[in-house]
DNA sequence: CTCGATTACAGACCGACTGTCGGTCTAGGA
DNA sequence: TCCTAGACCGACAGTCGGTCTGTAATCGAG
C-alpha cells in the first residue's frame, strides 16, 4: 500500500494546486469543475473520489492557503521578544502577504460566502486570528474582557488595509497607517 | 405613461422585497431565480424585463438595503454636535442594525463575493463609509494622511463587531468594546 | 378615434454546470 | 494465486441562469 497511496496523494496535490490558481484568478463561482478537470487531465469520477464536491475542494484549497500564511507570519515574528513589536511585525507581514491575489480572493473575499461565515471564522480562529489574539493578550495592553473582541476588530482592520493595498493603494502609506492604528489601540 | 409605469414600479418593488427576503434567508447562491419566480408569481420574461440578471437583481437589493441603513444611521446621529460623540453613536447604531440577518448576510457576507470587491467598496463609499469618513475627519483626531485608511479600518472593525453580535455574541459587551476601541483610536 | 410604438408580461427552450452511479483496472496483502 | 480496496473513468440526470419569440395592453401622435 505505497504506490497507490502515493499516486492518490500526488493527484490530490495536483488538483489542489490547479484549483488554487483557478479560484484565485476567476473566483469560486466562475471556476467550473469542468475547467479543473480539463486543466488537470483528470476525470470527473477521479475528482469526486478525492473531494466530496466543489465546496469541499474549495475548503481544502483554503485550508492549505491559511496554513501557508501561518507559516510565513510565524517566520516574520520569530525572534521578536517584545509582544507589541511582534504584533506589529505580524500585522505588517500579513498586510504584505495579502497583496498576493491568491490570498486576497480566496481567503478574504470568497471564503465567507462559500463556507458560510461560521466555518470561515472557525478556520481563521485556527490560523491568523489565533495568533493575533495570543499576541494581543501577551501585550497586556487591553482589558481582559475586551481581548477577544479587540482581536477580532484588529484583524478585520488589518485585513481591510491588506485589501486596500491589493487594490492598488500605496503600500508604504498603508503600513504606516496600520502601525499608527495599532499604536493607538495598544496604548490606553 | 402612468398606469404602465406604476404597474412596472409595483412589480419591481414586489420582486425586490421577495428577493431581499430570500437572499437574506438562504444566501445568494442557494436562492434560485426559479424560487423568486414562484414566490412572486411572476414569469421569467417579466423578471428579466426588469432586471438584467441575477447579479443585477442582487445589486438592486443591496442598493435598497444600504439606502435604508443610511437613513437609519443618519437618524441616530441627528442632533449630536460633538463629532466624536456622533461617530460613536453612528457606530453603535450600525452594530445594532447589523443584528438584522438581512443586513448581515446581504451587505457583509455575500456582497463582496457577488459584486466583486471593487463594486462593493464603491457602494459602501456612497453610504456607510462615506458617512464614517466625514465624521472621522470632523473629529480632527487623526492625521490627514491617515483619515482615509483609518476610516476604512474603523469601518471594518465595527463591521466585524456587528457580525460577532449577529452570531450570538453579547450585545452589551460588544458595544462597550466598540466604544473603548473607538476611544483609543481617536485619542492620540 | 386610429394606428404604430412602446412596455409589461408569458413561457418554451437552450447550454452549462454540478453531482451521481455503475463499472474498469491495478496494486498489494492473504 | 486470488481477491479486495482504492484510483480512476465517463455517461447520465437534474438544476439553473439566461435567451428568444410571442401576446396583450397602454400610450402618444396625427
Task: Provide a descriptive summary of the structure in words.
- The structure is a homodimer of 188-residue chains.
- Chain A is an all-alpha fold and 188 residues long.
- In chain A, 82% of the residues lie in helices and 0% in strands.
- Chain A has helices spanning 3-26, 33-40, 44-50, 54-77, 83-97, 101-115, 117-126, 128-139, 144-167, 171-186.
- In chain A, α6 packs across α7.
- At the A-B interface, α6, α7, α9 and α10 of A face α6, α7, α9 and α10 of B.
- The structure holds a DNA duplex (30 and 30 nucleotides).
Output mean pLDDT of chain A.
Answer: 93
Oligomer: homodimer
Structural class of chain A: mainly alpha
Give the end-to-end Cα distance of chain A, rounded to a whole number of Å. Answer: 60 Å
* Broad shape of chain A: elongated
User: Approximately how much helix is present in the residues of chain A?
Assistant: over 70%
Number of DSSP E strands of chain A: 0
User: Greatest interface and its residue counts?
Assistant: A-B, 42 and 41 residues
Write the element-wise H/E pattern of chain A from the N-terminal end onward. HHHHHHHHHH
> If helices are DSSP runs of H or I spanning 4 or more residues, what is the number of helices of chain A?
10
Unreliable parts of chain A = none
Question: What's the story with the biggest beta sheet of chain A?
Answer: none
Strand content of chain A: under 5%
Q: Radius of gyration of chain A in whole Å, from Cα?
A: 19 Å
